[in-house]
Write a structure and sequence with these properties.
With about 70 residues, the chain is an all-alpha fold. It has one domain (about 10-70). It contains four helices and no strands. The radius of gyration is 12 Å and the shape is globular.
């Protein structure tokens, strides 16, 4: 499913859930401690992107925080 915008203000919670599952679960399996898609032990995609699904943080914010942790 293609979206014109993935911003919180432009999506519903269900659309955000579909965005996370449809886009980020590329292999279709659990990601806990998997590094197959460079999650590198970041935990499950569900937990990592829960703030986005709940409308608390944009995907770009979550990704930036994750990358900052990886650099240190």
């Amino acid at each position: 499913m293609k979206y014109k915008s993935i911003l919180i203000k432009d999506t519903t919670m269900e659309e955000r859930r579909q965005i996370v599952y449809g886009s980020l679960y590329g292999c279709g399996s659990e990601c806990e401690f998997c590094n197959g898609c460079d999650n590198l032990g970041g935990g499950s995609i569900d937990a990592m992107y829960e703030p986005y699904i709940n409308g608390e943080k944009e995907i770009r914010e979550i990704n930036a925080e994750y990358m900052a942790r990886m650099v240190h």
